[in-house]
């Protein structure tokens, strides 16, 4: 019977230690098994609400709140853009339809939320 090949003790020890280590925790930002935090609960209440965003350059963007991300960017769907708040208030000029938009929190001057939920169309 042949004897087993010689194994470098240092390599074998390293391999043995690696097997004892636990797998690293998930780095995914989505931890669905965790209890919902109060902040997340408050954000979820805002889904499908109409947002009015006033940007630092005085443009006004109005649309349905879809989501946000870890950097606090705001995503609106069905968004319309006005050049300024006076244009929005007077309604003399048609808004520019921009569809899906993402607004960086750094560009935000003010945010208003309509308390009514936007009815999503069924197809």
Automatic annotation (TrEMBL):
Region of interest (Disordered), ranges: 1-36
A Gene Ontology term for the protein's cellular component: NatC complex
Highest taxon in the source lineage: Eukaryota
Pfam families: LSM (PF01423)
Extent of the signal sequence: none
InterPro entries assigned: LSM_dom_sf, LSMD1_Sm, Sm_dom_euk/arc, snRNP_SmB/NAA38-like
Skewed-composition ranges (Acidic residues): 1-11
Feature: compositional bias, Polar residues: 24-36
Compositional bias segments (type: Basic and acidic residues): 12-23
Ranges for domain Sm: 41-113
UniProt family annotation: Belongs to the snRNP Sm proteins family.
Name this polypeptide is given: Sm domain-containing protein
Organism: Ramazzottius varieornatus (Water bear)
Species lineage: Eukaryota, Metazoa, Ecdysozoa, Tardigrada, Eutardigrada
């Amino acid at each position: 019977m042949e004897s087993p090949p010689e194994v470098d003790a240092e390599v074998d020890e390293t391999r043995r230690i690696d097997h004892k280590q636990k797998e690293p925790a998930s780095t995914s930002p989505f931890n669905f098994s965790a209890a919902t935090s109060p902040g997340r609960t408050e954000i979820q209440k805002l889904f499908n609400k109409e947002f009015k965003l006033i940007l630092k350059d005085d443009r006004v963007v109005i649309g349905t709140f879809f989501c946000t991300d870890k950097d606090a960017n705001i995503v609106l769907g069905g968004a319309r853009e006005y050049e300024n708040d006076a244009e929005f208030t007077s309604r003399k000029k048609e808004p520019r339809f921009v569809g899906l938009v993402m607004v960086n929190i750094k560009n935000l001057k003010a945010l208003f939320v309509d308390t009514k939920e936007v009815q999503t169309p069924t197809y």
